[in-house]
């Protein structure tokens, strides 16, 4: 979570610096690439925390309807988890292929970073999110679904 927050803060600083320097007539060549890279890392590292906290966007009508039926709620959560694992697996596979294909090319404004570093963030974020989801599945199978206190 802290790493995602640091990346987001760096993204904001790069954008503010880019706008400020533009008014001064000074060009910051690297700021656009740095801002894009930091934004991508903030999103995909933040994804891990969202998956961990069940913070995904959803309509909670089904959750409220099944609040009195824990067995059905567990079945629904297991289904959600399998769908999430399938989607995250597709993201991780695609980002791995893109990372391999673009690793040989340097970023134009930041010559010590490769374009493959852009696709490293979705790969890391999706793999870590899959691990978190598998640990949740284990918990669902052993203890059933137990909503967090803020979801009650």
Describe the protein.
- This protein has 152 residues and is mainly α.
- The protein has one domain (2-151).
- 73% of the residues lie in helices and 0% in strands.
- The chain is built from five helices and no strands.
- Helix 1 (2-24) runs antiparallel to helix 2 and helix 2 packs parallel to helix 5.
- It is elongated, with a radius of gyration of 20 Å.
- The protein starts with a helix and ends in a 9-residue tail after the last helix.
Q: What are the secondary-structure elements, in order, as H or E?
A: HHHHH
Please tell me how large the radius of gyration is.
20 Å
The total count of helices amounts to 5
How would a crystallographer describe the biggest sheet? none
Describe the SSE topology.
Elements: H1 2-24, H2 31-52, H3 61-65, H4 70-102, H5 116-143
How would you describe this structure in keywords?
152 residues, mainly alpha, elongated
Quick synopsis:
The protein is an all-alpha fold and 152 residues long. Helices cover 73% and strands 0% of the residues.
